[in-house]
Write a structure and sequence with these properties.
Elements lengths: L2 H7 L3 H28 L6 E3 L5 E4 H13 L7 E2 L2 E2 L6 H22 L8 H16 L3 E2 L4 E3 L2 H17 L17 H19 L25 H28 L22 H5 L1 H26 L15 H32 L6 H27 L7 H5 E4 L2 E3 L1 H26 L5 H16 L13 H34 L5 H22 L11 H12 L2 H19 L1 E4 L2 E4 L3 H26 L1 H7 L4 H28 L3 H44 L1 H4 L2 H4 L2 H8 L1 H31 L1
Parallel strand pairs: 1-6
Antiparallel strand pairs: 1-2, 3-4, 5-6, 7-8, 9-10
Length: 758
């Protein structure tokens, strides 16, 4: 190749500049929003006093109540400000509505000498106006750090201690908790103080503003909480950025003629082939076997968790939840999902890094074995610790080795430290095996991108250490979504894109230039909208309207790259149809099912992340929707449909890489069944249950208030329970025809490889 041809084959430096600018600009804004979260979060008063100046409860009581909320895993039962699990109530909304009713009852008896329900229409409207005026007035004194409770507010607090004691005692109405799950009087007083603070922050106006610290969330007209005008304004304006972003992509598509996985005109040779696995690639197989088994356990636990919504307090007549509360079942369901998907990415990264480096470093396989057992220790240890923590068997170590209580980040702090150590070891193993490619001019850039994409995974897990059990809830939720959104939806997505690009390049399906360009393009598109778009999770958690404005505008643009990714599905179809001459005959690309699962990723990216994600991201929709079934509808379709299918694709790659054509015949039959079972089962879950129930619940929020749509009365509704039972066919297909065949294929592959070695 002469100098001119070499120059043409290189990408413009503007791709690199574009990525650097995108990352710097995005994080500048996100860090600014985070700083404001510290300054503008709802204040925790030093003490709450009555009209006489006597202490009702203190700020220490509020934080102690937050710790009770966490150590009993209540965020895996219900929600605060819409964030958490959907089995129990939204505790802040329930407390607020009970407070409004208590205030109304006292005012009615004081003004008219009879109860609220006995009032005439005009009298009732007058009392409602007084309720709104009383609750909306902010009586917090920033100079003395004291919050004044009126007499009705004080009485409601004391009355609600008993209310919550009763709630945690009745298993049929508390979302799958055992009897007397929380009965200690002092803990109940602290917990109620925490709920009281969250309700106050939800209803009392910010200083010099006409809306509360949570922007009037949750919706409760009786308490005076209705959507702020900003939610309507920024929802409308976000459509402009959506259309503008789409126009930019269409322009770029025309300028570059093609933005997808284009092969190019040059003749490319595959650099990896089935049955030619290196020692370290064979060592990764155990990762994929454990992934399949964790996946199976995860869906079984998830089925048991979801069943409580169809049959509250009972599992087909058996009181399962007395022994395994839904708090631990849902914790395991989420943690196992993260574990099996992340483990598949770790194994896939090791496998592809080995193909890049070509030369096996000494003791590389031993290092992979060591990392495997380290991951097993973290997975088993953290799951067991969460069970012990939920049952209050770890004493003061509950947050270190038990259950931290923060949704998605439930594993104890000690296990988190070990997880980061494991990820650092993974990075070392990747670098050792990929190092030769970094010295090769032809492979240097794509290998460097691969290593950078891997490096950000342990790096961006670090925000998990930036808060504690006594940090302000607003601050915690800020950092929590740095993990949930940025780590998972941003940098995991980027790492997988990089792995797919490396895979296609190693298989000789795309040129180095096109593979590298795709990585840069996806980095710009995903991070350009996704970094600032992280804030759409913070609309109602104590952030300012500046966050609402910026995150609404940018999160709307997250649909743009997802729309573009639908082209990937067709690209993968074209690539699977490409034939290679081998042994004098034509044969189909041997990684066929890897491509099929990647096609599924393109589909679910558009449907689950794109359509269902955009549906709930507009501020005005999110205001009524957050914490309803439309959220897990998006979550299941996106997490399983995108990240799960990507993880399964890597798993199938690992299976195929270690087996010859003859050995692949048996497991391939199960992989075929699994592909259709997973996709059809997930589609049935969404179409038959999650989406229609989400719409039904959204309607109930609008008609009756958020507290009602999240309460026990709603879940006993006949239509709701029917829709929950309609989840069963999809779950059954997904488990029986999707996950079980995958686990069987994993066992067959491992046994075949072991037999071959013997």
């Amino acid at each position: 190749m002469n100098l001119r041809q070499t120059f043409r084959s290189e990408l413009s430096a503007w791709w690199r500049v574009g990525v650097i600018f995108t990352v710097i600009a995005g994080f500048t804004v996100l860090i600014f929003i985070t700083v404001k979260a510290y300054k503008e979060s709802p204040p925790i008063p030093k003490k709450v006093v009555d009209a006489a100046g006597d202490t009702v409860f203190t700020g220490e009581d509020i934080l102690a109540g937050q710790q009770v909320f966490l150590k009993y895993g209540l965020m895996e039962n219900g929600t605060i400000w819409g964030h958490g699990a959907y089995l129990g109530p939204d505790f802040s909304a329930e407390y607020l509505h009970s407070l409004a009713e208590d205030v109304g009852e006292e005012l009615a008896r004081e003004r008219y000498q009879r109860g609220f329900e006995a009032l005439q229409l005009a009298e009732r409207e007058a009392v409602k106006a007084e309720i709104r005026q009383l609750l909306k007035k902010n009586r917090f004194d920033p100079r003395t750090q004291t919050l004044l409770f009126t007499k009705p507010e004080e009485n409601s607090y004391r009355r609600q201690i008993t209310k919550w004691q009763n709630h945690f005692s009745h298993e049929s109405r508390n979302g799958g908790l055992p009897p007397k799950y929380l009965s200690n009087r002092q803990e109940l007083e602290h917990l109620t103080a925490f709920f009281a603070w969250t309700a106050w922050a939800a209803v009392a106006d910010r200083p010099n503003k006409s809306y509360s610290y949570t922007s009037n969330f949750p919706y409760d007209p009786l308490a005076g909480n209705t959507p702020p005008s900003a939610a309507i304004l920024w929802s409308a304006l976000s459509l402009i950025t959506l259309l503008g972003g789409t126009a930019v992509i269409l322009f770029a598509f025309g300028k570059f003629n093609y933005l997808g996985w284009k092969r190019g005109d040059e003749e490319l040779q595959p650099r990896m082939w089935p049955g030619e696995a290196t020692e370290s690639q064979r060592a990764t197989l155990k990762y994929f076997v454990i992934v399949a088994l964790l996946f199976l356990v995860q869906v079984l636990v998830g089925g048991a968790t979801a069943h409580n919504r169809a049959e509250p307090g009972s599992f087909y007549g058996f009181n399962l939840y007395q022994f395994l509360p839904t708090t631990i079942l849902r914790t395991w369901h989420l943690q196992l999902a993260i574990f099996w998907i992340a483990t598949s990415y770790i194994g896939g990264g090791l496998l592809l890094a080995s193909s890049l480096g070509k030369k096996e470093p000494k003791y590389q396989a031993k290092g992979i074995h060591l990392l495997f057992w380290a991951l097993v220790l973290v997975v088993v240890g953290s799951l067991l610790g969460e069970l012990l923590g939920i049952n209050q068997l770890l004493g003061n170590l509950w947050s270190w080795f038990g259950h931290q209580g923060w949704e998605y980040l439930d594993l104890g702090r000690g296990w988190q430290v070990l997880l980061v150590v494991g990820l650092v070891l993974w990075m070392i193993l990747l670098f050792r095996v990929a190092a030769p490619a970094l010295k090769d001019p032809e492979h240097k850039e794509i290998t460097t991108l691969f290593m950078i994409a891997a490096l950000v995974i342990p790096l961006f897990y670090l925000p998990a250490f930036f808060f504690s059990s006594t940090s302000n809830y607003t601050v915690v939720d800020n950092w929590r979504f740095w993990i949930i959104h940025l780590w998972v939806e941003g940098f995991f997505e980027l790492f997988v894109t990089t792995m797919v690009a490396v895979l296609f390049y190693q298989l000789g399906l795309v040129s180095r230039k096109n593979a590298t360009r795709i990585i840069y393009l996806d980095a710009i598109l995903f991070l350009g909208a996704g970094i600032i778009g992280t804030g759409h999770h913070w609309y109602w958690t104590g952030q300012t309207h500046l966050n609402m404005a910026l995150s609404a505008l940018f999160s709307a643009m997250e649909v743009v790259p997802l729309t573009l990714l639908t082209l990937d599905a067709w690209d993968f179809v074209r690539l699977t149809r490409r034939s290679e001459e081998a042994g004098g005959r034509k044969r189909q690309l041997p990684y066929k099912w890897v491509f099929y699962f990647l096609m599924a990723v393109g589909f679910w990216n558009f449907v689950g992340a794109g359509i269902f994600g955009f549906l709930i991201n507009l501020p005005i929709i999110s205001y009524f929707e957050i914490g309803t079934v439309l959220t897990p509808n998006h979550g299941h379709a996106a997490l399983m449909g995108v990240f799960g299918m990507e993880a399964v694709a890597l798993m199938v790659l690992g299976f195929r890489q270690v087996l010859s054509d003859e050995q692949w015949v048996r497991p391939e039959k199960f992989i075929r069944v699994s592909f259709w079972g997973l996709n059809i089962g997930l589609a049935l879950m969404v179409v038959c249950s999650l989406f229609p129930e989400g719409i039904f619940q959204l309607s109930d929020v609008i008609n009756n208030g958020y507290w009602h749509a999240r309460g026990a009365e709603y879940f006993t509704n006949h239509t709701v329970q029917l829709l929950e039972w309609m989840r069963l066919p999809g779950d059954a297909v997904f488990i029986v025809f999707g996950v079980v065949p995958l686990a069987i294929a994993a066992v067959i592959t491992y046994a075949t490889m072991k037999g071959q070695a013997t």
